[in-house]
Write a structure and sequence with these properties.
By secondary structure, this protein is mainly alpha-helical. It is 80% helix and 0% strand. The chain has one domain. It is built from ten helices and no strands. Helix 4 packs across helix 9, helix 5 packs antiparallel against helix 9 and helix 6 packs antiparallel against helix 8.
Length: 220
């Protein structure tokens, strides 16, 4: 099972990014084009397994809509800031290392859900942690766009459109995740399966870290 999981997650990691067709399309655009950037931002988030794994971990034990809203808003503020600023100011960041930290965010959340920090006697501000990891998730998105040759004409507007698309995609994915989580929580098996699920979530995070660090090692 672990071998299969490794193969699946590694395949996702290899495929994650801006598809060749989308990249060619974006690089051919001149000036402000809202809908193409909005659509591709939404598409990237809906298919962004690393972001979705982290979000699933964040809301795993959140039962109130108000609590989910707070945490998701903090995450959105974090990744919106670094997505736009990272590309607009051309802030250098190694994509492999940033994606490895994103993998670490998945490990962190699963470990927290398993009560690992409590057992170690470590107190962590979970809201601050989600916001900080949101910054790295935004840089991860920024590195995908930085790898393209985008027109400077209308760039800021296009970045904002892409970010709005990301938020729309995140909201769409979140609705599905919450709906599935609520169905699962209604099952009598939820409590017994929760630890296994978070163990698998943590394993996915470690696989992502290993894959990205391997890529980084081969690139230097």
């Amino acid at each position: 099972m672990l071998a299969t999981l490794f193969a699946v997650v590694a395949g996702w990691a290899h495929a994650h990014g801006v598809a060749d067709g989308d990249a060619i399309f974006l690089q051919s655009q001149q000036g402000f084009t809202f809908w193409p950037y909005f659509y591709l931002g939404a598409k990237h988030m809906v298919t962004g397994y690393d972001h979705l794994l982290f979000l699933a971990g964040v809301i795993f034990f959140l039962y109130k809509i108000s609590d989910i809203t707070v945490y998701v808003t903090l995450f959105a503020l974090g990744h919106s800031l670094t997505l736009v600023a990272g590309v607009w100011f051309d802030i250098p960041a190694n994509a492999y290392l940033i994606d490895a930290i994103i993998g670490l965010s998945v490990v962190y959340k699963a470990f927290e859900n398993l009560g690992g920090f409590d057992k170690l006697g470590i107190s962590i501000n979970t809201k601050a942690a989600v916001w900080v990891f949101g910054l790295f998730h935004g840089f991860g998105l920024a590195t995908k766009l930085q790898a393209l040759t985008l027109s400077e004409d209308g760039l800021l507007g296009n970045l904002l459109a892409f970010n709005l698309g990301v938020e729309a995609g995140q909201l769409t994915a979140l609705v599905g995740i919450v709906a599935l989580m609520n169905l699962w929580r209604a099952s009598a098996r939820f409590e017994s399966q929760a630890s296994v699920a978070n163990g698998l979530l943590m394993t996915c995070g470690f696989v992502l870290i290993g894959y990205q660090l391997t890529g980084y090692g081969l690139s230097i």
